[in-house]
Design goal:
Family: Belongs to the HPPK family.
Oligomer: single chain
Number of strands: 9
CATH topology: Alpha-Beta Plaits
Radius of gyration: 15 Å
Pathway: Cofactor biosynthesis; tetrahydrofolate biosynthesis; 2-amino-4-hydroxy-6-hydroxymethyl-7,8-dihydropteridine diphosphate from 7,8-dihydroneopterin triphosphate: step 4/4
CATH architecture: 2-Layer Sandwich
Protein name: 2-amino-4-hydroxy-6-hydroxymethyldihydropteridine pyrophosphokinase
Largest sheet: 7 strands, antiparallel
Pfam family, one: HPPK
CATH class: Alpha Beta
EC number: 2.7.6.3
Length: about 160
């Protein structure tokens, strides 16, 4: 099954986003990421901007297994999913499954703040002028300004960015 998912973070976002990208690639293998952009919080009162991105991957795991893995990653990064108000509080990490498909064809997500990223990732359209990109680093690797495919080199165990 192909998955279209989102990453969000507004507590130390550069740190948490970089770590989770590595964790996602380690778990699922090849992951294609949209650019990472700064966005204002939606549906919550916060002074902290988010870093958001979309990502695609293929997995034989069920949707329930993928979501369970996402919840575990959020907890490892310090998010308290047991808190009933967690959806309206600042967060270290938010991973959501937006859509699943037996083919890598997806429609636009409903969330307005993700639509430009989706158009860029899925349809190769330019992002709106004035989009503020985030610099994400995995060791010496720097990405975040354009769509990138990240893979794990199994022979050496290294993370590889493939443009």
């Amino acid at each position: 099954m192909y998955y279209l998912c989102s990453i969000g973070s507004n507590i130390d976002p550069e740190e948490h986003v970089a770590r989770v990208v590595k964790e996602l690639v380690t778990r699922f293998g090849r992951v294609t990421l949209s650019p990472f952009t700064y966005t204002s919080p939606v549906g919550m009162d916060s002074e902290h901007r988010f870093i958001n991105a979309l990502f695609l991957f293929y997995s034989k795991d069920t949707e329930a297994e993928v979501k369970q893995g996402f919840n575990l990653l959020e907890a490892v990064h310090g998010r308290d999913r047991a808190d009933q108000l967690s959806s309206v509080k600042d967060r270290t990490l938010d991973l959501d499954i937006l859509q699943t498909s037996p083919t890598p064809d997806f429609s636009q997500p409903e969330e307005s703040y993700l639509q430009g990223l989706a158009a860029h990732l899925l349809e190769q359209q330019a992002l709106p002028p004035g989009t503020e990109f985030a610099d994400i680093r995995l060791g010496a690797l720097k990405f975040g300004h354009r769509t990138a495919t990240i893979d794990l080199d199994p022979s050496a165990g290294h993370i590889v960015v493939v443009d």
